[in-house]
Amino acid sequence: MKNKKVILATAGVLICGVIAVVSAVSGTATAFLSDNSQINNQFIVGYNTTTVEEDFPTPTPVPSGGNVAKTVRVRNQGDVPCYIRVALSYSEDLVTLNGLDTDNWVYGEDGYYYYKNVVDVGDSTTDLFTSVTINGEAEASELVVNVYEESVQTVDGSNPYTDYEEAWAHYEGGD
Questions:
Q1: pLDDT per position as a tens digit, 115-169
Q2: d(Cα 84, Cα 115) in Å, to the nearest integer?
């Protein structure tokens, strides 16, 4: 009976040893047949932030046909160059723009004035116009000129646009 216990104990130790060796070898084989690595890429996204700047004196009563000094330009305060466009709307259709800069701005069929040049970081467009004339009598006590501007970056990823028309066409969903 004592021999039987010794044989069983030896067999148990041998089985445990075999299991340990098989486990060690299979872990090594698995490690040998697999691999992994990790790379962290950081991107800094450029943003375009633009603001309307205007020179406009404190409003005073302006008679019909009167001229009011008002200049409008847009400053690039972002961290990437951009193209800019401006839309104007009026509370009443009595405004004529004077001193319109047609060398640097072009009026589009969609009602926007497009600045043809790239506006670099920290720079501004030229003045879109220099004054407005009030044509006729306003129905309201105030005549409001609203200035709305938009900007688009000068590149699509790492591909620069050839000009403002291509940039805005892409922005609008074109090619």
A1: 999 999 999 999 999 998 888 877 777 778 899 999 999 998 889 999 999 999 9
A2: 6
Q: Nearest Cα to 128, choosing from 48, 53, 50, 49?
A: 53
Model-level pTM greater than 0.90? no
Q: In Å, how far from its chain's centre is CA 145?
A: 27
Contact 92, 41 (CB under 8 A): no
Tokens encoding 88: 């104007």
Extract the runs of DSSP E, i.e. beta strands, from 9-165.
50-55, 67-69, 71-76, 82-90, 95-98, 105-107, 112-115, 131-134, 145-153, 155-156, 159-160
Using CA atoms, how far apart are residues 12 and 137, in angstroms rounded to an integer?
109
